[in-house]
Amino acid sequence: MGIERRSIVYDGPGGPFEGVAVVDGDWDTPRPGVLIVPNVLGEKEQDRVTAERIAGLGYAALVADLYGQGKRTTRDSPDPAMYMNHLNADRPLLRDRLFASVAALHALPQVDAARTAAIGYCFGGKAVIDLARAGGDVLGVVAFHGIFDPPGYDYPCPIGAKLLVCHGWDDPLATPDAVTALAAELTGAGADWQLHGYGGAGHGFTDASMTGSTRPGFGYDANADRRSWAAMTGFLAEVFG
Amino acid sequence: MGIERRSIVYDGPGGPFEGVAVVDGDWDTPRPGVLIVPNVLGEKEQDRVTAERIAGLGYAALVADLYGQGKRTTRDSPDPAMYMNHLNADRPLLRDRLFASVAALHALPQVDAARTAAIGYCFGGKAVIDLARAGGDVLGVVAFHGIFDPPGYDYPCPIGAKLLVCHGWDDPLATPDAVTALAAELTGAGADWQLHGYGGAGHGFTDASMTGSTRPGFGYDANADRRSWAAMTGFLAEVFG
């Protein structure tokens, strides 16, 4: 059958939600599973392609929907950040929707629920750090050009999920001060964390749609994209054992 | 013949110097070469073992001697840092001895001089960052728990060698402020640089002889050791092409 996409509708606070699972119909044993948390715009073609790359590694993938069925924006929307802003203003709700998405991943018949992880981009990078903070039922998380501000609620320590934070050092949304604050927070929380900082790279370094961006500190960076993906594959191999 | 060690005596300011080359006598074509710069104590068994691991990757290795033939210390020496302190106080001399060591690497018959790199530990990590700063003739450098203070001399920009800086975040010899200062320096110098920060790890995280250290911020860390070695192997594969 090969790798294929399937729409997955699942429940949660403010739902229903609609994600996209990518699995190989030929798999006959459960696989490690990876949740993919999209950027500000929500679930879209770019994330489905990422999910196919994850499936190509031999893992089941689910693109999460944190906004709700049909709630998506584009760069040309009147307010591209409208759904994200709602969750940024309510981090406990973000947490609970992440938990619902992890539950949907665990419910996929192709997934070994004891071996799952989450990756996320931009806002999704922030989300997966929150998932680790909040004790989400995953072995590890990888943030690509995420945002680091703490969630404002107490969370259980030590953090159980391992973290890999892939960061463009020129990212104006996550300054060096924010990096060192995150490092101190995660160390204080007893996490197993790693930071990969990429010199000369900015926000959105994995996002080919931002190639040629003229906004200072924003844009695609081929080196950081390739290196962070390689780091992620090594990280997932480690956490899945 | 298999992998074997050979003593290499070479010239330079304050020399002669005596390093140890590790190559496979069965190699019949030149290989990429890696200079290994030891920690405070200078060239020793631990570095030769590292060189053997490098040779196991298919690269020719040379353990550098920056102090001079016979000038070595141990942790039990009256002043273990005596030779290092001399070079820390004279960074142009450190640079020139690094250049002499790179020349010795390039002169090995097993080495493709167009494809070389340098790695270093602790003081050697600082040294390889200086080597990149100073325009040393290598494609890349990897620092393991290095020290980041700038060398105090002007150096040519942009920096040509790629840098991978593997850093234990709890290292008191390289504080978060020193990390962000190095990042700013390298960015300003136009370098292709990466920082891998390891949460909970301290100074000497690759050094098994520091296992069980009770000195805060110092000690071996198996996770950071394994992860940084894997990062180095990927980095060397990238720079050697």
TrEMBL record, chains A, B:
Listed name of the protein: Dienelactone hydrolase family protein
EC number: 3.1.-.-
Domain Dienelactone hydrolase: from-to ranges: 27-239
Pfam (any one): DLH
Organismal lineage: Bacteria, Pseudomonadati, Pseudomonadota, Alphaproteobacteria, Sphingomonadales
Top-level division of the source organism's lineage: Bacteria
SUPFAM superfamilies: alpha/beta-Hydrolases (SSF53474)
Key words, A-Z: Hydrolase
Alphabetized GO MF terms: hydrolase activity
Gene3D superfamilies: alpha/beta hydrolase (3.40.50.1820)
